[in-house]
Amino acid sequence: MKRPPAVVVVTVQAAEPDRTGGGIETRGIDRVPDDERHGSPRELFAIWAAPNVSYLSFVVGGTLILLGLSLAEAIGVIVAGNLLWLLTGFMAVSGPVTGTSSSVISRAMYGVIGNRVVVAVTGWLLAALYLALNWSAASVAALGMAGQLGLPDTPVLDAAVICLIAGLTVLIAIYGHGTIVRLYMTLTILLALVFLAVSVWTLDHVNWSYTPAEPPTGYEHLVVLVAGFTIVASTPLSYGNSPDLTRYLPKDTGGRAVALWTASGAFLPSVVFTTVGALAATTLDMSDPQAALESIMPVWFVPTFVAAVVVNTIANNGMTAYSAGLSMQSIGVRLPRVPAVLVVGVVGTVMTLFAVLVFDFLSSVKAMMELVVVVTGPVVAVYATDVALRRNRYDGHALHDQSRTGPFWYRGGVNWAGVLAVCLGAASAAVCASSSFWAGPVSEAMGGLNLAVPVGVLGSAALYWALSRALRTLPAAATRR
After folding, report:
1. 305-342 pLDDT, tens per residue?
2. CATH architecture for the domain at 40-377
């Protein structure tokens, strides 16, 4: 068998340091040199707030009330589920230490070869599906607005709207980290103003004494509470890319600040606007949330609201596409970062066109996304556990060594502790999961109780901890002190 080269990595250097965000970022997964590090943890708040000042939060909040929860129960579930953003923040601390992306850092968890498989599924395929799902939803909102303005409902218009939204998203991802840092502060302020206005109008229609018409009781009550928690928790568990947005910070940046600014940027707007969605559902029919919310706002404000929905989607998908381009490089695709982003964007756009123009692909994607936490939960858990076990002591240079003699080759290029923890954790979560089209045997035996999140997250973390010690895959330095 031919011996692989000592280091296999795309090594395109940035044309200029990523300081102003004024040009296209050409740096890929190669390590950011110390003299190009800049910024402070405070900038992470806006980076994570812009995607989470979200119309989706209204939808999720309304869904909790539709499930039969009381207002107090819904708010409790919202806070509890969003606490998982702390995991996203904790993962982010590995970015400044290594100066590289999460899809490279995860070689420590899965090995050089094993990591390619895991990242191909979780960092690329699922990313493309998320792009399609979000673009489809935003396109439907924009096309509805176009219909109200009297524009003809034609496939040409549909395709033009989809391509415009996708193009703006990909443009943000192409310009990269510096542009995201600068642009998302402005987007956070503008989106917050729009959704706060919607919230004010919503508060005029809240039934503060609301009680469910047929509240669940007994064991069914527990099933509904856990189902609501799973819905809320699925959003923070879908973000395993937080180190990608911290890799340009100085190496000595405080980990606590990185974790808290990241987590709070997502947590605060998610809690506020999901709660508003729950409040709205006390009097409005949130089975059609867009129509319900538009019914309580002035007619002149509706186009602004729809525009905000689209802009929020662009902000969310811009971050996703950016990380997906890095993931493509890390699995061995020999493309510079910009072409890699374009490939991801084209794939996501094609999926979206099929969803809106050809067949009900969106329903299939939504059904699959109900179970995506089965995979994302274990992956996030293993990453966070590895950061804790190694005490965030990673060597950015060593992570790029893909040779058989490198520290992350393990056995045959696979760290079986990480691979088994994710696979067994995902399998365990699947048999404990419950959705509109799938009920695992354990969940079915327990009356529909969905334990996918606690089993997947806690089970995978415990497995990885035990297997890492049993297989001795952690360096001795990581277990001292």
Report:
1. 999 999 999 999 999 999 999 999 999 888 888 999 99
2. Orthogonal Bundle (1.10)
